[in-house]
UniProtKB/TrEMBL annotation, chains A, B:
<dbReference type="InterPro" id="IPR002496">
    <property type="entry name" value="PRib_AMP_CycHydrolase_dom"/>
</dbReference>
<keyword id="KW-0460">Magnesium</keyword>
<dbReference type="InterPro" id="IPR026660">
    <property type="entry name" value="PRA-CH"/>
</dbReference>
<feature type="domain" description="Phosphoribosyl-AMP cyclohydrolase">
    <location>
        <begin position="36"/>
        <end position="110"/>
    </location>
</feature>
<feature type="binding site">
    <location>
        <position position="83"/>
    </location>
    <ligand>
        <name>Mg(2+)</name>
    </ligand>
</feature>
<comment type="similarity">
    <text>Belongs to the PRA-CH family.</text>
</comment>
<feature type="binding site">
    <location>
        <position position="87"/>
    </location>
    <ligand>
        <name>Mg(2+)</name>
    </ligand>
</feature>
<dbReference type="Pfam" id="PF01502">
    <property type="entry name" value="PRA-CH"/>
</dbReference>
<protein>
    <recommendedName>
        <fullName>Phosphoribosyl-AMP cyclohydrolase</fullName>
        <ecNumber>3.5.4.19</ecNumber>
    </recommendedName>
</protein>
<comment type="subunit">
    <text>Homodimer.</text>
</comment>
<feature type="binding site">
    <location>
        <position position="85"/>
    </location>
    <ligand>
        <name>Mg(2+)</name>
    </ligand>
</feature>
<comment type="pathway">
    <text>Amino-acid biosynthesis; L-histidine biosynthesis; L-histidine from 5-phospho-alpha-D-ribose 1-diphosphate: step 3/9.</text>
</comment>
<feature type="binding site">
    <location>
        <position position="108"/>
    </location>
    <ligand>
        <name>Zn(2+)</name>
    </ligand>
</feature>
<keyword id="KW-0963">Cytoplasm</keyword>
<feature type="binding site">
    <location>
        <position position="84"/>
    </location>
    <ligand>
        <name>Zn(2+)</name>
    </ligand>
</feature>
<keyword id="KW-0862">Zinc</keyword>
<dbReference type="InterPro" id="IPR038019">
    <property type="entry name" value="PRib_AMP_CycHydrolase_sf"/>
</dbReference>
Amino acid sequence: MTASASPEDWLAALRFDEQGLIPAIAQDARTGTVLMMAWMNAEAVRETVRTGQAVYYSRSRARLWRKGEESGHVQQVHDIRLDCDGDVLLLKITQIGGIACHTGRERCFYRSLDLNGMQPAWAVQDPVLKDPAAIYGHPHPDKR
Amino acid sequence: MTASASPEDWLAALRFDEQGLIPAIAQDARTGTVLMMAWMNAEAVRETVRTGQAVYYSRSRARLWRKGEESGHVQQVHDIRLDCDGDVLLLKITQIGGIACHTGRERCFYRSLDLNGMQPAWAVQDPVLKDPAAIYGHPHPDKR
């Protein structure tokens, strides 16, 4: 097998950061809503491709994070895109359960900067669809 | 003025990384297309809010990067969202000129992982809309 046909040439195109991580944006394939951004290491990228479900790397837990492993809210991956610099991934997904965020909301980007007051302020825009305690059976740590 | 009314409480909600940066995703406000992801430091976030146009921090040039400063392809910002952990921003924008990527494409995510071959491979999906040399008048460095 020649170097140009190495099975992981596609992975070599990725530029991981000093911690060996790359940001991965998850976008709803049907609506285009940006649901979340998390991080992947090389193993998480491989596992995402192998299984067809999003696998991230949890920085807080320092291990692979198979999205939905506790909540059941897995992400079926339809398309993986890479940016011009090779240092950001974009996933088109179907969010099972309709909840991507550990707060029980559809998406993590539920706060919007309100510029109408004396000072800018973050305003919660999106409803909690399901109590996180009912999703996880216990308080849930940050996804970081 | 009390601490709770500090003019930069909104900025204090952001969790910048060890380099003082936060990822910012730019999404087309009309179509929902994710155009790019770049980085902001606190000054870039302030300038984005102040001017209503996206200002990033260029890691390669180690300075503020007023998107479109060379190309004219500025990004008008309509909405700024913050994620649950406070460590990612999402901007809804109008991309002037219709070109976000320094390669002359609409978006930076122009490569898609093709899983139909013997091995996965990145396939270019999106056309170059304008020759970068015509946009910049010279070869353009990475946006990093």
